[in-house]
Amino acid sequence: MEKTKIEETKEYAYYLYKAKCTLWYFNSLIKEGYKNYSSVKFKNSDNVYVWLENIKIEGEYYSGNLAENGNSQKILINDVIDWMIIEKGRMIGGYTIRHYRDTLHEDEKLNFDIDFGVKIDDGNDFFKPDFSTPEGVIIKIENYYSDENMEGALSCKNFIQEAEILLKERDINITEELREQVAETLKTSFIESLLSNGFPYFKNIERNFTLEEKIKDRQLIKEKVIYPNGSITYNKLWVGHSNGEWKVLNNVD
Q: Tens of pLDDT along 161-216?
């Protein structure tokens, strides 16, 4: 495992955020009796980040063996900053490793991959499909698209916030009546587009996310979608936060 000190940039902070928000997926696998390689990263008593392998969950704790010496240890789940599993020779999770690899030159990446001995691609981000994160609501609306569930898709949108942003960008004086009129127009257009063009299909895919921009209560998220046949598409979506929830706003071409 990498021991080099990592510069704590905004990219690194986003990787840590992804590790935290996807830890639920790792935990669910372990609770189901996951048999392949598993590990978590935490800071030891010497203030050094290390990996604990062969993970089991015991209440609020992970138990396992330290990667550097095989000694058994138990740590609090809340003390973990990263997780990793290996599936068919491919790393899932391992966000701090991904970030460190991103800092390397291309020839250094090649040497790192050879030494690491596991395939490192863009991965597959398992955010919960809910309103608690920008990425989660994107997954949620795409699940509704796949089921051709119009009401579900509408529940993931915030046309009022989208209308307000649109009016502000055009420097138009915003009244409640105008905002509601524009919001209703946006909603009608959204529905008509789905009915005429059909619902997008996102089942049996992999996806990973990148934070492109952050403005107050909005984030621009780039989503890479990998389909079963290997084809790849990219989506850029503004997602807004209000009343304690994230909702999808508009796509960016």
A: 999 999 999 999 889 999 999 999 999 999 999 999 999 999 999 999 999 999 98
> d(Cα 145, Cα 198) in Å, to the nearest integer?
9
- C-alpha 10/C-alpha 23 separation (Å) is 20
Residues 6 or more apart in contact with residue 156 via CB below 8 angstroms:
131, 137, 140, 141, 144, 247, 248
Structure tokens at 129: 């499909």
Task: Say what the alpha-carbon torsion angle 188, 189, 190, 191 is, to the nearest 10 degrees.
Answer: 50
Residue with tokens 């389909």: 227
* Token representation of residue 30: 């372990």
10-21 vs 23-31: helix crossing angle, rounded to 10: 30
